[in-house]
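During the reporting period the student researcher (J.K.) took over the structure-prediction task from the postdoctoral fellow and processed the backlog of single-chain submissions. One of the processed entries is reproduced below for the supervisory committee.
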Amino acid sequence: MKNKIALFKKSIEAVWRSASSWALANIIISLLKSFLPLALIWLIKLLIDEITLVAGSGRAQLDNLLWLIIAAITIWLLDEILSDLGTFVRKKQSIKLESYMFGLLHDKAIKLDLQYFENPDYYDYLARASREAPWRPNSILNNLVSLFRGSVSLILMLGLLFTFHWAMALLLVVVNIPGVWLRLHFSELLYNFQREQTPESRKMAYFNWLLTGSRPSRELRLFDLGNYFEKLFRRAFENTKEEEVNLVRKRTLIDLVSDLFKAAALFLVFFVIAKKTVDGSLSIGEMSMYILAFRQGMTYLKDVFGSLSGLYEDSIFVGDTFEFLDLEENIKAEEPIAKTISFNNKISLENVSFKYPGSSKNVIDNVSLEIKRGEVVAFVGPNGAGKSTLVRLLCRLYDTSEGKIKWDNVNIRNFEPALYRENLSVIFQDFMLYNMSVEDNITMGDIRKKPDIDKMVESAKNAGLKQLIESLPNGYKTVIGTLFDDSRELSWGEWQKLALSRALYRDAPLLILDEPSSSLDANTEHEIFSRFREITKGRTAVLISHRLKSLSSVDRIYVLDKGKIVESGSHEELLAIEGLYRTMYEKQTSRF
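J.K. obtained the following structure tokens:
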């Protein structure tokens, strides 16, 4: 219960921060609506009694009748207006909250360490949080407001029924107890089921993407995989939905039994009230008032119990959202925090080792090296040697398991991660494809500043994009990709040139290029590497490449194997010794 109260508090704080004025309006409208039903029932009672009196006496005087009709219609109209306003206010509040909660989710996802994105549990957390975050906190507020409004209205109705007989008020409460127990019981069952089914739901979404997405569409047709993935989707879908249907069926059956008890209670109340009316103990207006009060009381009691069980359900499900938001961010500045970053000397790795969480094997094993300012350095080695992992450590997307990485003799852990990364410009092997304009794709390399058109053009030229962009219908304003209208698709090599120009656009002292020419044609690759010193003038560069012939002009090459540096030196120095680099080079060049 203590945990649930804490979750309620967090949820209400989120609602209030996202839209305090709309939340307050929602509360006021709900409170006003709680008093109107009693007023309307009382006016209907007076109206019916007045009609009976006028009809019985045969008088033509209808003034009182007219004013009662006007009053009843006014109360009804006010209730309708408040309902309409309430719908608008709740919608506006809901949109504000949805935007706020997505902002929290996105902010958390941006800050989380890269290792989370390589763990299936993270995607379970994210799937559950994304499903519940946009509306659960608002549901908690609405249920609290509904509980308050329903309680006020219910107390008023019970008080009215008590004037007839205390047993009627008691009966009203008792027949609704099974319904609230039912919802509480099945809320927990449904939550446990959905939590267990999260991985299966993600499988279903993945197979749906394989069947409908652009990227898998070619192989899907080439290898005739449509029916195969459809079967896998269907299996995941049925596993996810069949048990849920069984739960809902059980709940429906018990609901039906509960409804029979309510109907029996309603029959008993109607019979007693009708009998007393026939006996003359009640007027026609009083009969109508008590029948309406009992029926409305059942509605309000259902609202109260529904709000209570809804709060219980919300407290279970909203925990998933805050469980995600409470994930620990490990990549952060450590004391003593360095306020400024300058690159005057070198980057050094001192006995650096790294292993992925849950693994006992080092991917990087006791690596020490230096990268001096202005140098061009290359990492080479077989697949799985640890080259890309080493780059991610340099970018501080991971923290070392052992050892230190120093930037001008300052441990990079002492820098704010975002501030440190401003000094890096990177193209990864699995670079991003942004379905946006060419201009956006390039200038996103440095969004801290106003787009520099001259620098954008220069970056595109250095990446070998000049001729392509000139052929596009709208030049740099042309939208690329296939997701939107008036767009132009690029080849994989052209996408890589675009990613390279994005990396070159950023004024960062350290440029890291992970297989920057893997998809480039021979002419473009030759042009880029023959001018590489000119292109990277004034910067320090780190290259990862399997094309060893392109590395002849770099200052130093580090050869990695199984996470260790096994050789280092210039291209000529490494060829002079019979080591791994020479073996790789000879195998590569012998094909030509």
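The committee noted the following: The chain has a mean pLDDT of 81.
J.K. will present the remaining backlog at the next meeting.
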